[in-house]
């Protein structure tokens, strides 16, 4: 079983404007849509789409709980969330202008979690997670959830003995590496937190692979530099027309972990995840991808041993 943990979930409210956003004018909406914004939820979406059993854990504000659950249900995501009473799950406003590529993103900070909320999450993890399971911790941490709480969470997972995957950034990423995890996928900016001054990217990956089973540095359209044991690869996706690259990394992580769980090899898991995320960037929203397109794209992924 794979569990994803989204500590700071988000409901994306996509505001499609009739025209270009203009100051001092009433900007009319053409339509509104809702989507998941949390990275763990994005990972769960990819796994569910690939029909790999998983459950989304994490926090959820009670005042708009139905709204978040409705999106999770529509997207077929099995979930068991800890209620944060009397508070709403944060929203992100994604403004999409007519005929303009890219979007404007405005994000709320999110509710503060209490010691009680945190203890409920720990209880749930202790009750559910078994040594043979995989746990993905992804995304930012809400106010009130400190680095020491993350360290305690990883220590607990290490005690259980499950496979620990992290998609974190900044201090949280550093703390996770120190606490001991099995998988990380920093992007080209996030890896800078872990690199020693003057060290090449390959040397950084080699160094990290000494203590982390799977190290993948994603490089957007240029692919990824990946290490596992003594195997190192540069993976390049086929060239495609990009509609929206937000969520490409989350799709990569979800489909890679799904493949590993299905006992696919390292290289097969890498090429499939690369293909799924290449399909994802051709979709306008942050999660959608086509499994059939991914299977075709996988044949065009280039693998170079480095
Ligand atoms: P996010 O945090 O928004 O999910 P990220 O910054 O973590 O994204 P990226 O490095 O942008 O992740 O992308 C992850 C993977 O998705 C890349 O390694 C690559 O395989 C694939 N990908 C991203 N952008 C493109 C692109 N333009 N064309 C093809 N594949 C892409
Ligand atoms: Mg990312």
Question: How would you summarize the topology of this molecule?
Answer:
Layout: E1 2-6, E2 10-17, E3 29-36, H1 39-49, E4 54-61, H2 65-74, E5 82-84, E6 90-96, E7 104-107, H3 115-128, E8 134-138, H4 147-160, E9 163-167, H5 170-179, E10 183-184, H6 201-209, E11 214-218, E12 224-228, E13 231-236, H7 248-261, H8 266-280, H9 291-298, E14 302-305
Parallel strand pairs: 1-4, 1-8, 2-6, 4-5, 8-9, 9-10, 10-11
Antiparallel strand pairs: 2-3, 6-7, 11-12, 12-13, 13-14
Helix pairs in contact: 1-7, 3-4, 4-5, 7-8, 8-9
The protein binds adenosine-5'-triphosphate and magnesium ion (MG).
Adenosine-5'-triphosphate is lined by residues 187, 218-221, 223-224, 237, 240, 242, 245-250, 252, 274, 277-278, 281.
Brief synopsis:
With 306 residues, this protein is of the alpha/beta class. It contains nine helices and 14 strands. The protein has a single domain, classed as Ribokinase (UDP-N-acetylmuramoyl-L-alanine:D-glutamate ligase, 3-Layer(aba) Sandwich).
Describe the structure.
The chain is an alpha/beta fold and 306 residues long. The chain has helices at 39-49, 65-74, 115-128, 147-160, 170-179, 201-209, 248-261, 266-280, 291-298; strands spanning 2-6, 10-17, 29-36, 54-61, 82-84, 90-96, 104-107, 134-138, 163-167, 183-184, 214-218, 224-228, 231-236, 302-305. It has one domain (2-7, 38-89, 113-305): Ribokinase (UDP-N-acetylmuramoyl-L-alanine:D-glutamate ligase). Helix 5 (170-179) links the parallel strand 9 (163-167) and strand 10 (183-184). The mean pLDDT is 96. The protein binds adenosine-5'-triphosphate and magnesium ion (MG).
